[in-house]
Amino acid sequence: MTDEEMSGDLLGAIKPSTLPLHMDIDLSSKCNLRCSFCHLSYFNVPNSSQISFEYFMEKIDPILKQLKSVTLFSKYEPLTCRDFVKIFNRISEYGIETYFSTNAILFTEESIEAIVGRLRWLTVSVTGFNREDYARHMGADRLDKVVANLRAINELKRKRGVHYPMLRISTVGMLDTLEDLPRAVDFAKEHQAEEGVQVTALIAYGEEMVERMPLKDRERFVRLTQEALRYAREQGVRMALQSGGMEENQAATRELGHRPCFLPWRRLSVQPDGAVYPCPVSYKPVGNLAESSLEEIWNGSALEAFRAGVNDPARMNPECRGCTHCRHKSIIREDANDYSKADVFFAGMVRKN
Ligand SMILES: C[S@@+](CC[C@H](N)C(=O)[O-])C[C@H]1O[C@@H](n2cnc3c(N)ncnc32)[C@H](O)[C@@H]1O
Ligand code: SF4
Ligand code: SF4
């Protein structure tokens, strides 16, 4: 369902008994990396946890057959979940669409065997397209491992004669990495990423990142992204600026402060400690699986109140006003991109001392 279809009367027509079409599940609240730009380098996670297969079967499996799709990450690294393969195999039995984003370092023969032919979309996050740049941005000298795993995935796709997972390369767009975008295009082409390159605009979590945000030099951002988009077209590689280009973003976010968003009408976001959020970047849970079922939370008053504050400027939720979601945030508003002074962040994260 498109955003246009969701707008207007359709929103009012959603019945309380409707279940989400989609779920975002963080399988673990850990990561094997500490990328220089990531919230995990600046904020502590309240409690380090992961979803076990048994917990998954008890709390989440009962709702699976109602869903159209599942995303197996939002803020952390899904491959750090010990039961990743068992959980993924179970979800695959339902034939629903699956997707996750990963740094791709922790893939094993077993997890590659599990996903090839069954996972629909796979995003691999790479910022820095040579050994030195990758190590500087991602905090570890592991580009060779990422390349080896991408080759292993493509090799098995060929061997099995399957199209899935469709690959995409995601890279963080900061003023000092925009010149690397053509390298991202080359990398996507080399690794047969038919979904191409996606660029997420940098959110600054530390003071030293503020000057690197795209909005600090709009002319440079527009010029270099236009050049990269042209190069991508020439190379036959798809490329998308996740939050839109400057002009388009300005038009879409001028009145509302963020791009129109319908996530909480379609999906729910579950954390490994059982907390349920209305979207992957909201701060306040609308329930916990320890106390209520997903269906109760979906139809509960807390989520209903949150929905009312998503696209209405008069009563907007604070997290929607400064939305950091890669697709919905405004890239032109300072307060939606500069979190360098924030003491708390999503899912109960607290700034490191
Ligand atoms: C937080 S990661 C979680 C999933 C997985 N660990 C990964 O890296 O793909 C999700 C995405 O957020 C991007 N990201 C991380 N920090 C960012 C920031 N400060 N600004 C914009 N995008 C960022 C990453 O590059 C990655 O593509
Ligand atoms: S791999 Fe993903 S979750 Fe881990 S530090 Fe990097 S961006 Fe953050
Ligand atoms: S915080 Fe952003 S993604 Fe979440 S509901 Fe609000 S506008 Fe949508």
Automatic annotation (TrEMBL):
UniProt record, GO biological process: molybdopterin cofactor biosynthetic process
Source species of the chain: Azospirillum oryzae
GO molecular function, one term: 4 iron, 4 sulfur cluster binding
Gene3D superfamilies from the UniProt entry: Aldolase class I
Domain named Radical SAM core: residues: 17-238
Cofactor: [4Fe-4S] cluster
InterPro entries: 4Fe4S-binding_SPASM_dom, AdoMet-like_SPASM_containing, Aldolase_TIM, Elp3/MiaA/NifB-like_rSAM, MoaA_NifB_PqqE_Fe-S-bd_CS, Radical_SAM_PqqE_MftC-like, rSAM, rSAM_sf
Pfam family for this entry, one: SPASM
UniProt keyword list: 4Fe-4S, Iron, Iron-sulfur, Metal-binding, Oxidoreductase, Plasmid, S-adenosyl-L-methionine
Record's protein name: Radical SAM protein
Source species, domain of life: Bacteria
